[in-house]
Amino acid sequence: MFDVMIIGGGPSGLSAALVLGRARRSVLVIDNEQARNFVVQSSHGFLTRDAISPKELRHLAKKELKKYKTVQFCQGTARNLQQSHSNFLVEVGNLEFSAKKVIVASGLKEQLPNINGLKDLYGKYVFSCPYCDGWEFRDQKLTVIGNGNKLIEYVKLIRQWSKEIVLLTGGPRTFTSKDYEELTHRRIPIMEEEISGFSRERNDLQITLSNGVVITCDAAFLLKTNAIQHLILPEQLQVKLKKNGSYETSLHGQTIQKGLYIIGDAAKRFTGLVGAASEGYEAGVHVNKELVDEEW
């Protein structure tokens, strides 16, 4: 029996493990090494670790955690989350683990459009987060891919890094006439043909449209990656998804099930490295306080 099981070994889960391990809590971190950000070459925005690769960040974090005998690791995919009396049970392969508390920090996974070449180039030359990858392509030729009522705000954001933008809607535009006027007023080309493929030629990203036109740029930013929950374990305990695909939580990541917490992208859709680590710290402190009160 562990004090806490943490499902997910990213910045939020490992940060929670560090706090709880140092609080002398027995902790089990379950992770399947299939992180959402493993497709990118470097991560940004984390002080002292800017431009580190996601895998190296995890390696360093786990190396630090190994100093604490209170923290253990299990590689695999957590399945079948159940509540038995006041404790939780989780299956990993043929193993079963129990704990007083569970923190789900399993994040999201992308469901990219089924377009030839996109999956291979995503994270290298096609991105979704300008705060993560915009700096490296500042003042270069960028293509924005998206449609709908949220597009205008995304384009405004991307223009902070480069004014040289082409907009691909992937089909007939669905944003308002007002948004169209704002975009054309700023001389942003808009192309409504479907996208048939992505490729890398020499030093350029090439995006081929259904009419045969090829857009050449340095990088592309995708409004929607259709990300979904990496794991659906909380639903097994009646924790509902909100309309945006994140789980319903309250303060500190608490759910309707006492002792079950959800943090990071699984709860907020996007937190970034620093935000995720912060949520892990906060949840770890609160979970320890809850255990302290129960043991008093």
From TrEMBL:
**What superkingdom heads the lineage?**
Bacteria
Q: Keyword annotations for this protein? A: Flavoprotein, Oxidoreductase
Q: Which cofactor does it need?
A: FAD
Q: Name one GO molecular function term.
A: oxidoreductase activity
Has keyword Oxidoreductase?
yes
Instruction: Tell me which residues make up the FAD/NAD(P)-binding domain.
Output: 2-279
Q: How does it assemble?
A: Homodimer.
Q: Which PANTHER family match?
A: THIOREDOXIN REDUCTASE 1-RELATED-RELATED
Please state what the protein is called: Thioredoxin reductase
From what organism does this protein derive?
A: Halalkalibacter hemicellulosilyticusJCM 9152
Lineage runs: Bacteria, Bacillati, Bacillota, Bacilli, Bacillales
